[in-house]
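Q: I'm writing a short explainer about Glycosyltransferase 61 catalytic domain-containing protein for a general audience and would like to include a description of its predicted shape. Could you first generate the structure from this sequence?
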Amino acid sequence: MAGYDRIRRRETDVAGGKNGEEEERLRGALLTERKTLFSSQRGTFSTGIAPRKDSKYTSHEEKKFNNGDYLSRVLRVFRPSPNHFLVHLKIIFNKDSRWVPPPSVQSQLTTPISCDRSNERYDFCSLNGPSFLDPTTSTFLVVDSSSSTRQPISEKVRPYPRKWEKDIMSHIKELILTSSGTPISTPCDVWHNAPALVFSAGGYTGNLFHDFNDGFIPLFVTATANSIVSDRNLVLVIANCRNWWLTKYVELLSRFTNYPIINLDNETATHCFPSASVGLISHGYMTIDPTLLPHSETFLNFRTLLEAAYVHGQSPPTARPRLVLVSRSGGVGRVIRNQDEIARAAEETGFEVSIFEPTQYTSLSEAYGLINGSHAMIGVHGAALTHSLFLRPGSVFVQVVPLGIDWLAETCFGKSARDMGLEYMEYKIRVEESSLVEKYKRDDLVLKNPKAVVKEAWLKTKEIYLKDQDVELDLARFGKYLNKAFKKAKRFMDKEA
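A: Of course. Here's the predicted structure. Afterward I'll give you a sentence or two in plain language.
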């Protein structure tokens, strides 16, 4: 095992690198050691894996198959122990597109499918070996040649991290995961040298908050937990995937993968992967818990990913701090009735004000350019405040909190704002600033004790405090918050200059 010992020593050296140039040199030495080990194992490993000539998505992968990069990249992603390496990577691929582990390691194979269903938010399943996808039946099959007597494993999973909501989950495509003790008779149409990550873009997709809370933040957590984000060596397989959603988020999705995305709803070709993960790991509402990640990644790391996806040049210099006022209109609730007056007050305070009212069709790239280039952002609680993720650390974020939604305001945007290093402020309206005074008497619990009403039922929160309530801000009172926000934003702007 001398070769493995050298690799371990190199990995230790890489972990202790003191600067980028030194780390790059050490990583090169590590890769050389791995390739040396692969060369010595050519009798065991089949590294000259060529995709079928009629395969889709593989023209850019063919060189990687033929030079052994398949194995080196898998090792780099998963960092397995020597035994794990022997168990999972000693795989011979037959010419007829079937695969069988060598007899010498068949007895060492682990459980082909393992599922963690202990979390209240999500199920997460791992396919621990060569995995065959038949998209026409939404089925993944894993070859299990470790035991001819072991009973086949069968699991079903809906890969969306809101499993406590039975109604929503009923609309998420159910995937079937099975194991087989014999080689698969159906040939693969498409070969991949990267593992698959499978999830659903269904559920509440279309609402920006849920797109991030139930989609991209868990995707970041899941990819980061497997150390995949940095080199993007995974294939995204997405169920309930609508074309408009792919178009809207194409820049962000490209930061997770180097390969074309497989839309499980439209795909008909069979695919083969070295392994697969099904589901997304969620740490909670708008949460990235660094204690649960390998390198203690935080929301700042996610913010860096967004910056890479929507990178813009520096905004031109400005004499006044830029403020984005997030607008709502129509019958959606939580509209600022005196928005024009608030905008004028902000201008008089010293801000350069931009009104921003996003829709489902708003370009994320344009939104990022506007908000990333600003120094402050103000808005009433709602999905549009998810754009606060585009603010630079040090920017000012003021969330206007209507009656009855204190918990939502903190959970959805307050905590994440602080985690990103924003100067976060809350403006909690008073009863007289709520439109609910026009509908309820002053001694009604709706106005007198919103916490009691919210505690009774979520439906009342949604119907009364989210949909039925607009706000009219007290100009004198809110003006004090504008002054504080301006001072913080000006300090941030001057520090940048």
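A: For your explainer, you could say: The chain has three domains: 1-40, 43-308, 310-496.
Q: Perfect, that's easy to follow.
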